[in-house]
Amino acid sequence: MKKVMLDESEIPSHWYNILPDLPEPPAPYRHPGTMEPLGPADLAPIFPQAIIAQEVSTERWIEIPDQVAEIYRIWRPTPLYRADRLEKVLDTPAHIYYKFEGVSPAGSHKPNTAVAQAYYNAQEGVKRLTTETGAGQWGSALAFAGTFFDIEVTVYMVRISYDQKPYRRALMETWGATVFPSPSDRTSFGRAVREKTPDSPGSLGIAISEAVEDAATRDDSKYALGSVVNHVLLHQTVIGQEAKKQMEMVGEYPDVVIGCVGGGSNYAGLSYPFMADKLSGERPQTRFIAAEPAACPTLTRGIYAYDFGDTAGVGPVALMHTLGHNFVPDPIHAGGLRYHGDAPSLCLLVKRGLMEARAYSQNECFAEAVRFARCEGFLPAPEPSHALKAVAEEAAAAREAGEPRVILLGLCGIGHFDMSAYDAYLAGKLEDLDLDQSRIDEAVAELPKVPA
Asked: Tell me: the pLDDT tens digits for 308-366?
């Protein structure tokens, strides 16, 4: 079977919350000013109450509202494909499956949480949302969601991606959003960065700071975050829940679950429903591989410590793998993976050895993306090309061991807006941008001082 489909009636009715199943309670967020544990009231200036409740919830299952489920039906359930042509090219006994989120209107997994966040904000009378975006997938998704709930959306897009991917900006504007390159001249923090570094390529940390500042200084606005935090990750678990049903339909269960990681929402969405089986002892042998860019290697080279989620240090402080909130990654084309930290729950799983992290250079990932496109037809976004590199390694390992492994991949988005990157790769002009350890050392030296 090439394509495994579910009926609309099989869209999950609840989101899965991994927090009560983690091997230890997650560390509390800290207040950016006092470094004391953060309470729900501290989040009220930027998030609606329903989102705050989900962020701190210890309930394993949270019901999906009918209005959200109705919009999900536009593209969900998403298909699961057998990558049989890729298997032949890789000469592997492994069975490779990919869950394809690129069929959403925004072309990625991001609408799974964008629609939910827009709904909860609209329920509380919010008229305007601000946000950041890297490559533009999240900004596009929130712009799309805003149209359904009559919410104005303002997006601060990381400057290098704003320049590299003009049609993602155009897509956001088509859905009615206003987009500014970050660092911008619209916020005090943006102006400060521009004064210090006029040619700054920007970073997600800088863009988050601008979006938070914008929202916090207006009574009609709230802030929406596209990854990292608990409520975003749980919204994405519709991916993995569907994938489990689809794998059951073909009579298989993954030996290894692979996805790319920037902040962690795509990979958590796919992997957490399977991780639940590992944590319960039902499937203890399942392996999980988080693939990230060598130019922004948070999980493989970052420090596990408390750090600000944004460059200005105005958002919550989280315990995570981090390269330091002042770290500005090189301008790789996988803009969605250029974040200095990762989701705290995912970082905890890596630290406890329940997930493995691998880092890959830009060119080796694009090589796998081109091979995948020539085998399977779909053009991956640069972000999941990192997962494809890990898939190739696992396929080779299965061949060498003579083992018929089952590999599940999260193909989180399409690459149609990334043709300048593919053009550069095919012309042999794509840089690998080696990362000097001194840059990491300098950034992590400025981590906040958090009391034990």
From this structure: 998 988 889 999 999 999 998 888 888 789 899 999 999 999 999 999 999 999 999 99
pTM: 0.95
| Distance (Å, whole) CA 211 – CA 206 | 9
**Nearest one of 282, 170, 146, 162 to 221, comparing CA atoms:** 146
Angle between helices 204-216 and 188-196 (to 10 degrees): 150
pLDDT tens per residue across span 54-90: 999 999 999 999 999 999 999 999 999 999 999 999 9
Out of 3.40.50.1100, 2.60.120.40, 3.40.50.300, 3.40.190.10, which CATH number does the structure's domain 40-60+109-230 have?
3.40.50.1100
